[in-house]
Design brief:
The protein is an alpha+beta fold. It contains two helices and four strands; from the N terminus they run H-E-E-E-H-E. The longest helix has 26 residues. Keywords: Activator, Signal.
Length: 78
């Protein structure tokens, strides 16, 4: 009986960890800019989709984009 309770607890904990990791990944926001401009965008912005992959620069936060001198796009307003 004790083994079965331990197994159920392990399954519940594993499920919770998986859900939390999925939530963390889903809420992580990535921003994109171009080495040819000073604007940064949400990755799904219509202007971001026009960035040449060779010129793409990715930022993990708005603060990081600002620190490199980028300004928010006026269309997607990241």
């Amino acid at each position: 009986m004790f083994k079965q309770t331990k197994k159920k607890t392990a399954i519940i904990l594993l499920t919770l960890v998986t859900l939390l990791m999925t939530l963390n990944i889903a809420t992580a926001t990535t921003y994109i800019g171009s080495s040819q401009s000073n604007k940064f965008h949400y990755t799904d912005c219509r202007w971001a989709k026009k960035i040449n992959p060779g010129n793409a620069i990715y930022f993990s936060s708005r603060e990081e984009a600002f620190s490199y001198g980028y300004v928010p796009c006026k269309v997607c307003k990241p």
